[in-house]
Design goal:
Length: 55
């Protein structure tokens, strides 16, 4: 029964993707670029099996 319950993924907030900062240069000036990658915790679904007990 507990395995049938799905909760939002804590790593991606339910979006299925997570941001990752990358170093980039634009016109010789260093910048930080943010790319979106599939969440490795929920495999891009946004939900995980189980329950989230109250803290």
């Amino acid at each position: 029964m507990i395995d049938d319950i799905e909760v939002l993924c804590h790593a991606c907030g339910g979006e299925g993707r997570r941001p990752e900062a990358k170093v980039s240069t634009l016109g010789g000036v260093p910048h930080t670029a943010t790319v979106s990658l599939p969440c490795s915790w929920c495999e891009g679904v946004g939900r995980r099996e189980g329950i989230d007990p109250p803290a």
